[in-house]
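Work Package 4 report. The design task specified in the project plan requires that, given a folded chain encoded as structure tokens, an amino acid be chosen for each position. We show below one input record used in the internal validation round.
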């Protein structure tokens, strides 16, 4: 049954908001802040073969898989995208994303550039990509060290990985330099709100406008 015409403008299609950046740029903190104030947005929880960091919880931060389980899920088509980063596998479980989008809810992805590229190929109408840049490489390294959860060797690998990530900045719709946390959060929120009101995300709009214009 169609909803009453007066509700027509409220119906919309969910979107995929991708927040990508080199590790340490601050995308996890930005994601957390956006999620707190956006009830119609949920975080996509990825699967990974890397070891949990201190404090990371299964099913909250990641689903921690063995390489064998990860491969089995990937081969069964259970990931909407998956990629390798520093020798570990990361993948986005397909079912929750498809369910949320169909229900008109938005999904936030904290994934790297290959994941963004693959997600965009899988859902070309639905992806809004944001790339965060660090103010400088020195500041990025400082933030990685302050996190103090990784060894020196892992930090060095992550600084190198950051360079490989940053060269893909121009594949994204929006690029922000994360100089000021509150400002970055406000900009990400503005991008989300603008994307929601795009006419292609409101399938009932033509009917609503036709009714508005009825004499
Ligand atoms: P970390 O090990 O620091 O949690 O994540 C390493 C990188 O993997 C980050 O850039 C993060 O955004 C990315 N990542 C996390 N989950 C996924 C995923 O499901 N798919 C892809 N392609 N990248 C992911």
């Amino acid at each position: 049954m169609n909803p009453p015409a007066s509700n027509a403008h409220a119906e919309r299609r969910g979107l995929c908001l991708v927040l990508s950046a080199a590790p340490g740029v601050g995308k996890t903190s930005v994601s957390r802040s956006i999620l707190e104030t956006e009830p119609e947005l949920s975080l996509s929880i990825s699967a990974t073969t890397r070891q949990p960091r201190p404090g990371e919880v299964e099913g909250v931060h990641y689903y921690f898989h063995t390489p064998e389980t990860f491969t089995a899920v990937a081969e069964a088509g259970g990931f909407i995208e998956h990629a390798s980063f520093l020798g570990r596998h990361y993948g986005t479980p397909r079912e929750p994303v498809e369910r949320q989008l169909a229900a008109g809810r938005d999904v936030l992805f904290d994934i790297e550039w290959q994941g963004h590229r693959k997600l965009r190929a899988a859902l070309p109408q639905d992806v809004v990509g944001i790339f965060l840049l660090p103010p400088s490489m020195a500041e990025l390294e400082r933030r990685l060290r302050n996190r103090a959860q990784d060894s020196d060797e892992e930090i060095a690998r992550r600084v190198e990985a950051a360079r490989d990530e940053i060269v893909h900045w121009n594949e994204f719709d929006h690029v922000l330099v994360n100089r000021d946390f509150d400002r970055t959060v406000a900009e990400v929120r503005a991008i989300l709100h603008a994307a929601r009101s795009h006419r292609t995300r409101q399938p009932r709009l033509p009917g609503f406008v036709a009714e508005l214009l009825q004499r």
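Confidence is low (pLDDT under 50) at residues 1-10. Validation will be extended to a larger panel in the next phase.
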